[in-house]
Predict the 3D structure of the following.
Amino acid sequence: MEQKKNEGKDRPSRVVLAYSGGLDTSVAIVWLKETYGCEVICYCADLGQGEDLSAVSEKARKSGASDVVVVDLREIFVRDYIFPMIQAGAVYEDGYLLGTSIARPLIAKVQMEIARERGADAVAHGATGKGNDQVRFELAYYYFNPRIRILAPWRLWNFTSRSELINYSKKHQIPVTATLEKPYSVDRNLFHTSYEGGILEDPWVAPPEEIFQLTRDPRTGPDEPEEVTVSFEKGVPIAINGALLSPLDLMEKANSLGALHGIGRVDLVESRFVGMKSRGVYETPGGTLLHAAHRALETLTLDRELLSMKAQYMPQYARMIYNGFWFSPERLALADLIASTQHRVTGDVRLLLYKGGLRVTGRRSPYSLYRKDLATFETDSVYRQADADGFIRIQALRLKLFSDQEGSSL
C-alpha cells in the first residue's frame, strides 16, 4: 500500500497546504486528495527563494490543487523577523544563523489567515516526522487556532524515504526536481540556503561545490579585498555604504556583497529539537555580514554588564527560535528586553571582505562608550593608575580568604 487508509469518519473537506513546489509537498497534494477526497488549496509564501512562483503555481494545479495562493512576504520577513533576530544576535549552537527556523512562524501565520478566509477545516505541511519544521509549523498553527486540524503526511503515509516519494511522483507524473542521484533537501529564502540529506548524511563527506546556489567559491573570489560600511539605527540595519535602503533592498545588497566574496558558508552537525543529531550545510552571506557588524557596534555602545547579560540570554533565545517557540510568551517577553538594549546601538561599522572571510576594521557611534582619554597608553589626566591598587586588593579579598582555608597549592 502507498498510504494508510483514513479510518476516521470526520474527513476534512478543504485543506490549506503549505506548498513549496518541492518533492514532499508535490506528492502531498496527490496523497491528500487520494486519502481524504478533499479539496487542496496550495499556499506558497514568497520569501525570496529565487524561484519562478508562477511556474510553481502551475505545477501545483497540474498536481491537483483546486487553487494556489501566492503571498509576497519578503519585506515583512526581513523587517519583522530577520532584523529583530539580528538585533538579538541569535546564533544556534555557535554556528547556525537560523535561516530556516525564522521563516517558519511567518509562513504558518499567513497560512492560518488563509485557512480562516477560505473556510478550511484543516491545514497541512510537508515536514518530516524526524525534523524540526513539523514542530515549528504546528506550534504556530495551535497558537492562532487551538482547535485546527493538522495533517502531517510524513506522519500518516507509509512512505519511509524520499526515494519512495520520487518513485511515487514518477508513477503519478508529478513534476519534481529531486532525483535518486541528488536526493538532498534544499530550503532557500532571502536570508540563507540550507542543504540536508542524501549525500550530505555522512558528516565526513565534504559537500560538493556544485550544490551551492548563493555564494561564490571563496577560492575564486576577487583578488582584491572590498571595504563595506553598514549603518544601524537602534540595532536595525538601515544603510550600506551610505545608501539608505528598505529592509528588503538592504538584505539583497548584503547578500550580493557577501556572496561575491564567498562569505557565509557553514557546515555543521546540530542538535535537532526532536533529539537526534543532523548535518546541515548553510549559506548565509548577507546575514553573516550583518551579524558581524551588529556585534561590533554593540561592543562600542553597550555597557559591559549589559553585554554580558545579553550574551547569557542569547543561546536561550536562539533555542526558542530553533525549536519553534516564536509565538511563546517567553520569546515575546525576551524580545521586549532585547529591544530595550538597542536604543543606543546606532552608528557605522566598516568591514573588510576577502575570499570567504571578513573582519571589522572600524566602528563609530554618537553613543560610543569608548573614551580615548581613558583608554590611552599615553599621558592622561583623567584616570589615576594608582587607584588600581585598591581595586585589585578588594577583588583579591575573597581569594585570600579561600587560600587561608584551603591552603596554597605551592
Notes: The chain has two domains: 14-81+98-183, 193-364. Residues 304-323 form the longest helix (20 residues). The mean pLDDT is 92. The first strand starts at residue 14 and ends at 18.
